[in-house]
Amino acid sequence: MKKIFFCILILFSVSSYSQDELSKGKAAPYFKLENLDGGFTELSKVIGKGPVLLSFWATWCKPCMEEMTELNKIYEELKEKGFTLLAISTDNEKTIAKVKPLVKSKGFNFTVLLDKNSDVARKYYAQQIPYSVLIDADGKIVEVHMGYMKGDEKKLREKILALLK
User: At a CB cut-off of 8 Å and minimum separation 6, what does 109 contact?
Assistant: First the structure.
């Protein structure tokens, strides 16, 4: 019941921006998380190559799945130009086993990280999902976005393209 309420709440929180907690122009907080291959990915290792999008999500979140499908298209189009997408799963110990099979079945090609204890989500004030943070090549936060509504991906793509110029 809580999951259903949470998803409904997310749907109604479309396009709300959270700039008080995580300010534009602020340095993105450092993190190191396990990836699906059993290795680790550090934010500091991908900063400097181009814009980075952090997308916080969970396997049980329907709006997250819709957004991730659209983000995969953007990633495929712009990865060769320097765009990086780090999809950070906030699934806990009960649902974490579903992450890898879901990513494989959906054909997502971007890097998926596991934030099992939501430590990174707390650093980024990701209290609701989907939640995205766009970071420029200098490691500064450009945009923070909560929720997903069809069409949000078009605005995001334009922001990424502007950062790639």
Answer: 72, 75, 76
With bands split at pLDDT 50, 70 and 90, how would you rate the model's confidence at 15?
A: very low
The Cβ of residue 148 has, within 10 Å, a number of other Cβ atoms equal to 29
pLDDT in tens, 38-92: 999 999 999 999 999 999 999 999 999 999 999 999 999 999 999 999 999 999 9
Question: Which has the closest alpha carbon to 90: 21, 159, 18, 31?
Answer: 31
Amino acid letter, residue 93: E
Number of helical H runs and strand E runs in the chain: 6, 7
State the CB neighbour count (10 A cutoff) for residue 13. Answer: 15
131 Cβ neighbours under 8 A, 6+ residues apart: 55, 56, 121, 124, 144, 145, 146
- Secondary structure E strands in the chain: 32-35, 40-42, 52-57, 84-89, 111-114, 131-135, 141-146
Strands, DSSP E only, in 1-103? Answer: 32-35, 40-42, 52-57, 84-89
